[in-house]
Amino acid sequence: MKNILIFILFFTNFAFVKKVFSQNDCQIGNRLEIKSENINQNDIQKKIAEEKLMYKEADITNIKKRIDNCNENMDANLSLIKQKITKNFLNIQEVFANRDIKDLKNHIGGLEKSKKEAKIKLENSLSKQTSYTGLFLVLLKNTDYYDKKEDLVLKAEKAVKNTAIENLLGTHIKRVTEADNFQNINDVISSINSGKIHYEAPEHQKDNETGIFVFFTRIEMSPLIAKLNKTNNSQINIQNATAIDIQNEPDYISKLQTLGVPKYIIDYMKEKINQNKTRVLNHNQTTDMTLNKLLKEGNEQIIRLENEIKEQKRQLKGKEKTMKKILSDINITYNFSKADKNAQKAIDYFKQQIAKLDKQWNKEKNKEIYYKEVDFGVLNDLAKTQAEQIMDLYNIVKKSRVTKLIKSSEVFQIKNYQIENYETSETVEVRRKIDKFWVYPMVLNSRSFRILIAFKFKITDKIEKTETPDDKQDFVIEGMKMIFVEGGTFKMGSNDDDDDEKPIHEVRVNDFYIGEFEVTQKLWKEIMGNNPFYFKGDDLPVEKVSWNDVQDFLKKLNKKTGKNFRLPTEAEWEYAARGGNKSKGYKYSGSNDINDVAWYTKTTNDKGTEPVGNKQANELGIYDMSGNVWEWCSDWYDSNYYSNSLKENPTGATSGSNRVLRGGSWYNNAKYCRPADRSNDGIGFRLAFVP
Question: Do 374 and 454 contact (CB within 8 A), yes or no?
């Protein structure tokens, strides 16, 4: 016997070009062509007796060769159709991946705004947290005996103002920025042309004989607080006013002596300067460190934002280029303002193309010819024996898997596409029935015959999602009942208790099964052959098992059952404990009164575990998810994981030192028996399963 049909079709790599096989059908028929409608053994027997056809081995070989050629041509056509379907399918994926152009542009605008705000924040920080101090002397010559001291002080302050601005504001900031090369915030630094100047600890001495007035002050400069206007020097007689920055003039005494300042005034000013030097030095060192820290942090933030803006703009450019190409290929003009509508038009177009190609695939697949051979010996009536063999073969093929074709789910997914919940692992089924068949009998010897039967089919059913009838039914294995939990979305965590339960975040889990009870000692003994537990009893939950012990148990259980049992993820466990999509929002698993559902310190009196299933079940019919024993989950424990948890089927941190446990136990108080409570120190477990 020979079966040339490839049952499993993988719809990958599709494009459509000129057909390599132009015939509408493969003509291999003879007078023993039998339609499948109202077929029965008597009619077949009668037709065989009337035709009296017999074929030679060479004839049969030639017929099979022609069938093989027909099927090869059909496969070639199917492959070309598949390529086209895949191309359209990938185009749809491209559209979905690049349709968020407007959102991306808005995001870039937000980043630009954040960059601007970061610079404003830096300016504010500079104004509030930085100031520089300097020591200055001003020498006024040719003063009059009758000049008021207040006027001379005012004149001295004006004379020193420009020097202070240049030296305190400009020099310090320039030094710091040049040292660290803050290129990305040079515009912020260069904008510092205002501030507040404050004259502190003023001292002055006047010598009436020489007309010399010497003014000393400690000046503090705070940038960016208020506008600073430099004094117009033309209003001051430069020959009569000399400003000296003590920090930049270490030999200021010689300069004063050269300018004719009396010794007693020089000594007096020297004393005042020495009293203030240490204070000024410490203040400016602190300011340097503060300024350097602010500029470094501001620079890093702005660099990060600029890099992100650059990357987002690169992505935007790429998305627009891709969308323009896709839309151009189907004669749609790209328009940014209509990006969403253009994308939807493209998706609709590709869906229509896939639907047409799917029909072409079905039509082409109907050309396939499937054949079987059978040898038999004739007992009495040759026609009757042949008819019996033909009917047997017909019924075998009719009930066989050849009438059910399995594809991957491109077409199904395009019809039901949801970008938020897209799965590539689903399959679809195409069913077909026998349309007609041909019979080719051949004599082997005087009492032995061979029949070749060639079948043609017709695809009749629509494409449907593959689903095992019992997929959503609870089942029992090794005495353990597994409860079906329909997937859904729920609010995971709690904001009311421990920090590792925060924040509440939305999570979606797929369908899964979970044990009705915690794994019992009876099941453990059957699988592992030992009983290492402190509290003994077949119906008691296992306790004091390590996570690695559980993995050994699962390996042996799966080998024995042929299933793929595992531990639940933390998200699956909490979803089931809360009642899944039947949840009534109870505080504990199944009730607001913990005594209804949990064995915990008050109900056990700290005496030990209790038999499973003796408290009230939760909304899904699951027992003891609050209390009795802590239950292992598959996730690594991370106290901060909820801050960056995945929304779809989270599986926890990528690494850690401990695994997650849930549910509380017989020796814990009520707090630890809540569905949201997390721990990394535990005892027992329950099974989970995904078919």
Answer: no
Segment 62-83, tens digit of pLDDT = 888 988 999 999 889 988 988 8
Distances (CA, A) of 438 to 27, 30, 74, 97, 445: 11, 7, 19, 51, 22
Q: What are the strands, taking DSSP E only, across 550-658?
A: 631-636
C-alpha distances (whole Å) from 338 to each of 109, 316, 342, 419, 433 are 19, 16, 6, 20, 47
Rg (CA), the chain: 44
The residue among 277, 226, 237, 248 whose CA lies nearest residue 166 is: 248
Write 519-525 long-range contacts (CB < 8 A, 24+).
519/480, 519/553, 519/684, 519/685, 519/686, 519/687, 520/480, 520/612, 522/479, 523/478, 523/479, 523/480, 524/553
DSSP reduced 3-state for 149: helix
Q: ω before 611 within 30° of 0 (cis)?
A: no
Among residues 595, 576, 561, which one has the least CA distance to residue 633?
576
Write the CB contacts of 200 (distance below 8 Å, at least 6 apart in sequence). Answer: 133, 217, 218, 219, 220
Q: In this model, does residue 235 exceed pLDDT 60?
A: no
**Among the listed residues 10, 11, 14, the one whose alpha carbon sits nearest the alpha carbon of residue 84:** 14
Which pLDDT score is estimated for 193? 52
Q: Environment class of residue 236 by beta-carbon count within 10 Å: exposed (0-12), middle (13-18) or buried (19+)?
A: middle
Q: Where are the alpha helices (DSSP H) in 330-368?
A: 339-365
Which residues are CB-neighbours of 419 under 8 A, at least 6 positions away?
A: 96
Distance from C-alpha of 156 to C-alpha of 415, rounded to nearest angstrom: 85
CA separation, residue 207 to residues 137, 153, 259 (Å): 15, 14, 13
Percent of the chain with pLDDT over 90: 26
Which range in 295-304, 463-472, 511-520, 634-643 is most confidently predicted, on average pLDDT? 511-520
474 and 502 in contact (C-beta within 8 Å)? no
pLDDT at 181: 60
What does the H/E/C string look like for 418-438?
Answer: CHHHCCCCCEEEEEEEEEEEE
Helix, strand, coil abundance in the chain, percent, nearest 5: 45, 20, 35
Give the pLDDT score at 514.
Answer: 94
